[in-house]
Amino acid sequence: MRRNLGGSLAALVAGVLVTAGVGAQTTTVVGSNVLVSSCTQLTVTSRFTGDDNGNGSTRVEYNTSSSWPGTTACSAVPGPSPRQCLVAGLTPAQSYWVRVTFSDPDGVSGPNPEVLGPFALSACGADADPPTVLVLSPAEGAVIGGTDRVKLQVWDEGGLAASPITWWVDSGALSTAATLNPDYACGAS
After folding, report:
1. Quick one: which of 82, 62, 76 has its CA closest to 14?
2. Which residues are CB-contacts of 78 (< 8 A; sequence separation ≥ 6)?
3. Buried b vs exposed e over 76-110: b needs ≥16 C-beta within 10 Å?
4. Listed residue (49, 41, 44) closest to 32, CA to CA
5. Of the residues 61, 71, 148, 178, which has the maximum number of CB atoms within 10 A of its CB?
């Protein structure tokens, strides 16, 4: 599946993870990274292995210093790896630290909580930053066929009306059909 959103997208880079086994359920092994995705936003991507029964979650906090607790951006992100959290509405030209905490009743291996930073945001100018796209489903590596629902989260500080979403699957026809979630103020900064 390819996505064209009117600008280039920054690639999210993941850390290397190691698997550790404990009985029937394996210990969750974690690693995260942070992308400065605009002058007011960070994108946190947390990759993990070992949560075979899917009962874990990820919490993301941010602060202007490496002191905690901070402000919660995402309180309990469930689901398969990778888990992603947008930290939006930040102050331009400011540096931020991020703390990622993994919870799994079966155990967590690796740095937990994981503190990353500082990440310096640039000053905002005209909306020169490309939109941020998160693939929420299907999960990475999933095999799909027939009729499947693809769920994306698209955010642009300048609003989406200025750059309509154009998408296609494989070599199919271009489409601009999209359903906006009314629970979010789409395009608001």
Report:
1. 82
2. 54, 56, 57
3. ebeeebbbbbbbbebeeeeebbbbbbbebebbbbb
4. 44
5. 61
Domain harbouring 66, CATH code = 2.60.40.10
> Does residue 62 contact residue 55 with C-beta atoms inside 8 Å?
no
* Whole-angstrom distance, CA of residue 102 vs CA of residue 40: 25
Question: Which residues constitute the domain of residue 112?
Answer: 12-120
Domain assignment of residue 57, yes or no: yes
Q: Is residue 130 part of a domain?
A: no
| pLDDT score of 184 | 56
In a domain, 144, yes or no: no
Whether the Cβ atoms of residue 111 and residue 32 lie closer than 8 Å to each other: no
CA-angle at 120, arms to 118 and 124, nearest 5°: 155
Residue 134 has pLDDT above 90, yes or no: no
Cα 44 to Cα 115: distance, rounded to the nearest angstrom: 12
Q: What is the DSSP letter of 171?
A: T
Number of domains in the chain: 1
In this prediction the pTM is 0.57
